[in-house]
Specification:
about 170 residues; mainly alpha; 8 helices
Length: about 170
């Protein structure tokens, strides 16, 4: 069983590294990976901090889930990204999860711009999608985007989650 905060952070980094590599290769984040990591994180938080650890882990998971869920509803993220960030929240707790989400969104925006720069053919459809997101009612957006167009515009957001989480750990260490 993991017994120190350093070991907990190492387990978290291993999890997000696996998320990044698997998402990069397959554009999927396996449920089993998130479930196993969540069990390890939750049990370790309880082992190390008792009831406070349980509340911290559940609060962090709720923050990670709640902050990524709107992006899933808008089809900007996949369900695996939401589950991965909720799992990161179990390890980090509420406060650090907010930092991790913020860093992930910033890094994801930079990566998204890089994808657009390297794949100029995606710039037009992405701009039209953005205008549609801003102009259309949220209730009708989920079904309005063609599956074929979104597949070609996706990039593995697990990489951004891994980088954002690592940045949050570095920020928390100082």
């Amino acid at each position: 069983m993991l017994a120190t905060p350093t070991q907990l952070e190492a387990a978290l980094l291993l999890f997000v590294l696996c998320v990044a590599v698997i998402d990069w290769r397959t554009h999927r984040i396996p449920n089993l990976l998130c479930a196993v990591a969540a069990i390890i994180g939750l049990s370790t938080q309880v082992w190390m901090h008792g009831e406070d650890g349980l509340l911290s882990a559940l609060g962090g998971a709720a923050v990670g889930f709640a902050m990524f869920l709107p992006f899933y509803v808008l089809r900007a993220f996949g369900a695996g990204d939401v589950k991965a960030m909720a799992t990161v929240g179990i390890f980090l707790g509420m406060r650090s999860t907010m930092i991790a989400v913020g860093m992930t969104l910033i890094i994801g925006a930079v990566l998204g711009l890089a994808v657009l720069l390297f794949k100029r053919s995606h710039a037009g459809p992405t701009f039209h999608r953005l205008v549609g997101l801003l102009a259309a009612p949220i209730a009708s957006m989920r079904g309005s985007i063609q599956a074929g167009t979104t597949e070609s515009l996706r990039f593995p957001y697990g990489v951004a989650i891994a980088c954002g989480t690592a940045a949050a750990l570095l920020i928390g260490a100082h």
